[in-house]
Amino acid sequence: MSVPDISCKPTPLDFVFVIDSSRSIRPDDYEKVKTFIINLLQFLTVAPDATRVGLLQYGSEVQNEFSLKTYSTRAEVEQAVRNMEHLATGTMTGLAIQYTMETAFTEEEGARPKELLIPRIAMIVTDGRPQDTVEEVAAQARQSGIQIFAIGVGRVDMNTLKAIGSEPHSEHVHLVANFSQIQTLTSVFQSKLCSDMCEVVDHRCQHICVSSPASYRCKCRKGFILAEDGKSCKKSECGDGVMDLVFVIDGSKSLGPTNFELVKQFVNSIVDSLDISRTGTHVGLLQYSTKVRSEFTLGQFTSAQDVKQAVSRIQYMGRGSMTGSALRHMFEVSFSSKEGARSNIPRVSIVFTDGRSQDDVSEWASKAKNSGVTIYALGVGKAIEQELREIASEPDEKHLYYAEGFEKMGEITKKLKSSMCIAVKREKRDSLTKKNIKNLMFTWDRYRRYIK
């Protein structure tokens, strides 16, 4: 099938093809899929600073053919597609989606940082019923920011395709009767890949509209965060204040699963007040019980959306309460360069607890504070005041917060946000003042030497 020669100015994308290579696909049909991919490539400007293309195929296992960083020209990608060999095994679609989410779209494999808002597109082509579950992993992939097109060929269940593809399904889910007809989708995707949705639709983005195939999303300028409606922007409560922030949250059995979910909501409400980005605030989180578990590190995520999704996935530990061990881990590990801590960036920790610790807290809290970490201690219910004082930085009235019950957490959350943001802004202002004084003294010193 010939591809029409049209004027196409596609949006830069990170685009991964996910190809079913199961035994149910005949060799000549497998070649038709390769032709379809090559035809679609004509609508993409393949280059490191334009669209990057990766491809994996799957059967009983996932085989990565090439990643987003492998090739820098369309010709190289086309040749790699032609060289693909049919796996002819099972149909583990869920496994392939998991690989796409956890590996193919990582920066290590060539995906660009999320704050650049380069659309992440996965096109899944399948001809049969998956041998594993797809609903949950596909939902996680979409929530992580991957826009999924699901293409079914032959006797594929439409409900399965809808469970995989993004919404609206009319734009992202396609079913054709056989592999000969898959070529009819070329013109459909030509329209999607060559249209600037921000110019076509009334997007109503307050600041910036970012186009992607058959969709768009809104972006805010630096110092602002996207509001709940996904279109308007609001000033970040901490403005452009930057910090490395580590949450240390109690996961002991005295808390209970219901209250633990409230603690996760508390964490996400703090995250909503921050400008989280590669150059902005970074967030890590520890959960502790009898043991300490790093849920995610400072260097792991660079967007509020990713942090909040990671928080939502945290599983309650529900055993003892070793707050001292958690403080030690925070001091020795969480604020290390290996975990993503940056030099000359304010280091802040919010420690949450609802009861007495089973080990000493003073030693490691003091070491952390003496090293420059500002600690906010948040206690609820049966938290011990003396322990909170030992944990918190001074003065207490700015760093120690207590609520009798979880229903009162909203009140102290507001106070904590305000105090933390004021402190970070002050530290940034003081840092700039010191830098300006240093530059002035350096200039004066050079001037004195010159006039001698």
UniProtKB/TrEMBL annotation:
Alphabetized SUPFAM superfamilies for the sequence: vWA-like
GO-annotated molecular function: calcium ion binding
Domain VWFA: 14-193, 244-416
GO cellular component: extracellular region
Keywords noted in UniProt: Disulfide bond, Glycoprotein, Repeat, Secreted, Signal
Localization in the cell: Secreted
Glycoprotein is among the record's keywords: yes
InterPro entries attached to this UniProt entry: ECM_Assembly_Org, EGF, EGF-like_Ca-bd_dom, VWF_A, vWFA_dom_sf
PANTHER family, per database record: COLLAGEN ALPHA (PTHR24020), MATRILIN-2 (PTHR24020:SF35)
Name of this protein: Matrilin 2
Lineage: Eukaryota, Metazoa, Chordata, Craniata, Vertebrata
